[in-house]
Amino acid sequence: MARFLSLIRPQAFSSFLGRRKMSLDLGAREVFAAAVEAVQPDVVVRQSLSRQGDSVEVVGTGRTFRMKNNVHVVGFGKAVLGMAAEAERILGEHLVRGVVSVPHGLQQALREHGKQHLLVKENSRIRVMEGAKHNLPDPDSQKAAESIAGLASALTEKDLLFVLISGGGSALLPAPIPPISLQEKLDVTRKLAAAGATIQELNTVRRAFSLLKGGGLARCAHPAQVVALILSDVIGDPLDLIASGPTVATAAEGPACRQQVQAVLQHYGLLDSAPASVKDALERLAPRQEVQTDEACRVLNAVIGSNGVALRNASRRALELGFHPVVLSPGVCGDVRSVSRLYGRLARFGQGASPELATEVLELGPQVGVESEDLLRVMRTLEEGRGVACVLAGGEPTVELTGQGRGGRNQELAMRVGLELRGSRPPPDSPVFLSGGTDGQDGPTEAAGAVADASLYEDAQKQKLDTLGYLNDNDSFTFFQRLSGGRNLLVPGLTCTNVMDVHLLIIPQRSK
Q: What CATH architecture is 41-175+215-249+292-305?
């Protein structure tokens, strides 16, 4: 679909914008496709590595490295296979060997979807190992982690190691410290998550009980030069949180680390009931002899793809299609109910600005992780009323699970925004909202998200669909399936990437 839509001439597209509601729907889908296209694994690597003879530059960092048949590659994550294939094309004859850990069944899925360009060649020097069924660490992913650690540990100061990292990397690089078993570590982190531990607390424990996370892989590779190319799936792109920071040097010493882990386990009532192996590992955590900075550690960490990159390309495509784009934020978070209220009020503001609406928008900002200055900038743009506005944002809102239905945060957000738009101008002048996961999958469904406008509630009423009932059961996928034959669903298929979600709010020009 994206390939087909790219053939539409921008002039022709903009000439019929606003005539029918499907035109705005089509435009939203095209802009979303551009966001996904910008963060394809081969694209981000090709744009980040520039080879000149026997030297390779990491674009945007000012760092160039000499190659002399001394290059190795390791990787872990849902998108690293395509990254590895492109890296091998660029590094060429200087690549000695590599190991990448990817999700179970990925190679077959790529073949079935006609994405062979994201596979390594048949005679590749990079070994592909699959594991982590259902996105959980398993013996296969642990075996891959051991192979990666073995490769890194054998390097010398003359070697250059490229580390490819993307979302899902944590589950694909499990290497618990002895005597903790993989299952015991998994049980502890599951219990912490179920008890409400924050991502920071989970990572504190995961890193402490891991040989490779929290800078462990960089330590294995020392004294080789390490270059990490990272496709971020975390708000704000914090290097220590993406795949639990295997190449990020830390200054934590054993006793301090031990106290932090003990405090987390104690806080959630899990210290006394922890397995004997966990208690033993805690007592034997030794001070780590870690270098304090990435530079001294001979490590370069470069984020080469992110939600921000996706939004910039989406903004360019929106402009080509005749919209007036404005980026709100790549870090939208919080409960989908608050996020939907924000978008609903921005849509109303765009079709009739008022001080009351502006106040409501600003009050919602802190609840959804958006700064007031960003909201003010967007509202100024909307108040100018220049053509059809396209507000772009990204991030990862959350859903409170109260039911047993099928759906995900993107479909539920689109459904809730559609209800918020009720009472605004009807199609074709209604604002259109799209929310989609860049990984192509929203919850346990084949959809990445959905598109909605002001007709959603009325259409549901005509079809006798209980919108509140579907929301209470977290069954947004079934709702959209039954609404107008599933026309509102966003189903891009296998996207091969993940930089969280993309939100689009398209607002037709208000009457003067």
A: 3-Layer(aba) Sandwich (3.40)
